[in-house]
Amino acid sequence: RTGAPPLLVCDRIDRSFGGLKALKSVSIAISPGQIFGLVGPNGSGKTTMVNAITGFYPPDAGRVMFDGRDLKGLKPHRIARLGIARTFQNLALFRGMSVLDNILVGRHIHMRPGALKSLFYPVWARPAEIRHRRHVEDIIDFLQLQDVRDMAVEVIPLGLQKRVELARALAAEPRLLVLDEPMAGMNQEEKEYMARFILDARDAFGAAVLLIEHHMDVVTALCDRLLVLSYGEPIAEGDPHAVIAEPAVVAAYLGK
Ligand code: ADP
Questions:
Q1: In 3-state terms, what secondary structure has residue 232?
Q2: I need a labelling partner for 2 at 20 to 30 A (CA). Which of 37, 82, 118, 147 fits?
Q3: Ligand 1 lined by 43 (C-beta under 6 Å)
Q4: 102-106-112-116 Cα dihedral, nearest 10 degrees
């Protein structure tokens, strides 16, 4: 989609768990403004790839470069601060906290230590804190979460909870947005909303997006490029419509 140089480059990533090779020489490159889809059957290594990029499970071999910088040895919070935000396959929201406060948590990587706590009180907020709040309010408007902003996050419908996760990731102003099954468990209408929001987020923030998703209709509609994994190995890559028609991909999904 864009001719810009890649923001994220993963070069021949390997990762094992004990004797299990979860990733075998997986390479990807994503440019700003591009939505890159990573698909494959359950257990094919998609989440492991996300964890390799975000520093949760560093690769055994291969390099992850972000904006020209080698991420080797960096802890997840350092990588996050460089501009990579993720959502999780299973919701990772804070129960008992409001929608607004959950989104503010995403903002904390830009705040000085201790500032987060003070945000939860109506203080005579210092200018930086006002700026953070305003940014978060903008995201709430953008994702149409106004009606639920003060509700406890666990009482709102699942589709909205997934949207709060997206909001929290966007609050960090990421340059790379990593979405791990953002539509899992959603009905058709919720999926369509989420698809729209992902496209809008890409356009509004110019972010690069790595999308892990098993709904093929979603992937082909949203992604500029697609990589298919099977048992940790790349088996097809390229234009989404072409890729999903490849016999190796069809076979992988049918269980060979
Ligand atoms: P996917 O996201 O495509 O469903 P995963 O990346 O979660 O696949 O898993 C790939 C393989 O690695 C699976 O066989 C899984 O059991 C294994 N795996 C993932 N994480 C761990 C871990 N922390 N310890 C042991 N095995 C793991």
A1: coil
A2: 82
A3: yes
A4: 0
ipTM: 0.97
Q: Calculate the alpha carbon distances from 15 to 25, 45, 204, 228 in Å.
A: 9, 9, 34, 17
> Residue 136 C-alpha to ligand 1 middle, in angstroms?
34
Cα of 1 vs centre of ligand 1, distance in Å, is 31
CATH superfamily name and code, 17-254: P-loop containing nucleotide triphosphate hydrolases (3.40.50.300)
Closest-CA residue, ligand 1 atom 22, reads: 17
Question: What is the distance between the alpha carbons of residues 167 and 197, in angstroms, rounded to a whole number?
Answer: 10
Q: Report the candidate in 242, 251, 194, 202 with the shortest Cα–Cα distance to residue 218.
A: 194
φ, ψ at 27 (rounded to 5°): -120, 140
CA of 146 relative to ligand 1 center, distance in Å: 37
* Termini Cα distance of the chain: 32
Whether ligand 1 lies within 6 angstroms of the CB of 42 is answered as yes
48 lines ligand 1 (CB under 6 A): yes
Task: Annotate 90-107 with b (16+ C-beta within 10 A) or e (fewer).
Answer: ebebeeebbbbbbbbbbb
Whole-prediction pTM value? Answer: 0.90
Phi-psi bin for 197: left (phi > 0), alpha (psi -120 to 50), beta?
alpha
pLDDT tens profile 13-63: 999 999 999 999 999 999 999 999 999 999 999 999 999 999 999 999 999
Q: Is the CB of 180 under 6 A from ligand 1?
A: no
Verify whether ligand 1 is closer than 6 Å to residue 47 (CB atom).
Answer: yes
